[in-house]
Write a structure and sequence with these properties.
With 194 residues, the chain is of the alpha+beta class. It is built from 3 helices and 12 strands.
């Protein structure tokens, strides 16, 4: 099996989200680290399209600068059927540039937990000065297949939990079903993730 970093694809025609409202702003670190939100999350959460970015398109995997996986109802259904992962789905209302609700369901897909499977000898990254064992920047990722749960198709890496890893069979399922807004970075491919 092959593994890829799962990223969003930013295009001029699609929207982006750049601001996190209170009370989510002070608690979104829990999602970034793969911890359950539970009662810390309000289902009335509203997220606004960035007005500086004129795109209005709403792909299945929404681009945002908050480091949160945001998925459409279609992608949620596919992940529920195919991912075999523990994911907490946190609903939110997407507001367009004029502050009107978009008539489409979206969720933050909080993938729970992490896997300690990075090949640190081959990976090119910047170590965090504040958190030993964590990366503040990732430039080329390699995984150690022997340390990956063989059932894992979608997971976070322990040394940088905001990074989502997708296995090739789940990637193929997303491509087969025409999921939009995704970008895949192969192991060893140059990247710049902070």
């Amino acid at each position: 099996m092959e593994y890829f970093i799962l990223e969003t694809r930013l295009t001029p025609e699609n929207c982006t989200i750049s601001e996190s409202p209170e009370p989510l702003d002070s608690k979104q670190w829990r999602i970034a680290e793969g911890q359950r939100m539970g009662e810390h999350y309000s289902p009335d959460t509203q997220l606004q399209m960035d007005k500086r970015h004129k795109g209005l398109g709403t792909p299945d995997f929404l681009h945002n600068t908050l480091l949160l996986p945001m998925v459409s109802k279609k992608l949620r259904s596919l992940l529920e059927a195919e991912a075999d992962a523990e994911i907490e789905y946190l609903p939110f209302v997407l507001l367009n540039h004029k502050g009107r609700a978009v008539d489409r369901e979206f969720y933050i897909a909080n993938v729970i937990g992490t896997q300690d499977c990075v090949d640190r000898g081959r990976t090119e990254a910047r170590e965090s000065a504040l958190e030993p064992g964590q990366y503040s920047g990732l430039f080329k990722l390699f995984l150690d297949p022997g340390r990956i749960d063989p059932k894992a198709k979608l997971f976070r890496i322990k040394s940088k939990p905001t990074v989502l890893i997708i296995r090739s069979d789940l990637k193929a399922a997303l491509e087969r079903d025409g999921v939009t807004g995704t970008r895949y970075i192969a192991m060893g491919e140059k990247c710049m993730i902070y």
